[in-house]
Structure formats: C-alpha cells, structure tokens
Amino acid sequence: DSGVTQTPKHLITATGQRVTLRCSPRSGDLSVYWYQQSLDQGLQFLIQYYNGEERAKGNILERFSAQQFPDLHSELNLSSLELGDSALYFCASSVPSSYNEQFFGPGTRLTVL
Amino acid sequence: AQSVTQLGSHVSVSEGALVLLRCNYSSSVPPYLFWYVQYPNQGLQLLLKYTSAATLVKGINGFEAEFKKSETSFHLTKPSAHMSDAAEYFCAVSRGTDKLIFGTGTRLQVFP
User: Are B100 and A102 inside 8 Å of each other by CB?
Assistant: First the structure.
C-alpha cells in the first residue's frame, strides 16, 4: 500500500459525459501528479500540482482539467468524453526532494462506451 | 529532452534463471532513474531508484540495477527468477522535481 488513494476504482460512462476522478496523496506529500496509461500511448504525464498551484503540464487535452485543494487532495475532471479517453488514470504523490520519488495510487479505470 | 528506451516488450525466463530487463536513457542533465513494477490490475510500485549516490542500486524483492553513464544504461537484474516476479516493468527518468518519463514497459513471464 503506497498510501495514495484514488476513487473510484472503476468508472463506466458514455461518450459526451463528464467525470471526476479523485486522489488523496500520502500524508505530508505536497506534489500530486496525474498520469494516463493506455495501450497505444503507454504511461503519459498529464499534469502536476504542488501545494495547490499548477506546476507543470504534459499531454493534457483541453477537455481535461485538474485542481488541488487546500487539504492537498486533487481532482481530475474529464469532459466531453470520447471512446479514446478510455484508460487507466493514475495519481502519484511525492515529497519535496532532489530526486522526486513518486508513489502511485491504485488507479481509476475509465471505460467510455 | 529526456527519454527512455526499453528493449524488448516481452521477456520470458524459467524459474530460477537470471532476469535481465534493459533500459537506456537519454538526458541532457544528470538523470534520476527509476524502475517500477506493475502487477495485473494494480498501480505502480517502486522497485529501486538511482539518485547518483551509488552506481549499483539494490531494490526490493532481490532486484538490482547498475547505472552506467558511458553506456547510458540502467538495466534491471535479478539472479534467480520467481513465479511471483511475473509482471510489467517500467523504467523511468526524471530531472528532479519533475514529471517521470516512462519507457514502454517490458512484460516479464516466468515459466516453471
């Protein structure tokens, strides 16, 4: 158990819908990262938050957005869903350190029908 | 730009045999390197990390990796495979307080 929690574990929805994925980092970790894992794209970095502020963006679509709240939990919002958005979405957290060891949650499996 | 290449998307070994999973990196700055393991329907678990303290890094479950700057490699090894080692293994690189850039993964199969 990494100490990072993600809800829900599974999510099945239809095209055009909007969903919210939730992540709680390990106690004391200020950084939260979101990654997408799909068969065709592999593991791709989406976005990073540090202590409530957006720190870095990766290959995140404009239809996707995220935020980190004062209690440090984070939410990833996916809207106007398409079939191709079906994937595993991971959240990771890390302590501020020089080498940025990241701890991953169990993931949310999103299926868009 | 940083990148990671994992040679071999599938590796099969017999139980008790040596495991060797290959990873080569590209980085314009001294990298931090990681190996993660993913068991079916689970998240990623950190096996080991290179942070420039020592070139030979020991991780969990008997795995180790050696950082070779001249070869830009960080191959993962285990002297004797166990059935429970069957999983997908990812090599990753970062510059520090930054995103992880992952390789495409290597699926390890262990045969009895």
Answer: yes
Q: B95: phi > 0 → left, psi -120 to 50 → alpha, else beta; which?
A: alpha
C-beta atoms of A90 and B43 within 8 A:
yes
Contact criterion met (CB < 8 Å) for A56 and B102: no
Local structure of B100: helix, strand or coil: coil
- Residues A23-80 have pLDDT tens digits of 999 998 999 999 999 988 899 999 999 999 999 999 899 999 999 999 999 999 999 9
Report the C-alpha gap between A65 and B66 in whole angstroms.
38
Pairing of strands B56-58, B64-68: antiparallel
Which residue in the block uniquely carries the two structure tokens 């894992």? A37
Residue B13 gets which letter from DSSP?
E
DSSP B70: T
Question: Each residue of B47-78: pLDDT tens digit?
Answer: 999 987 788 999 999 999 999 989 999 999 99
Contact B37, B88 (CB under 8 A): yes
Q: Quick one: CA dihedral A1, A10, B102, B68, positive or negative? A: positive
Q: What is the DSSP letter of B79?
A: S
Structure-derived torsion over alpha carbons of residues A40, A32, A20, B38, reported in degrees to the nearest 10: 40
Residue of A5, A6, A43 best to disrupt the B interface, most CBs of B under 10 A: A43
Beta bridge partners of A24: A5
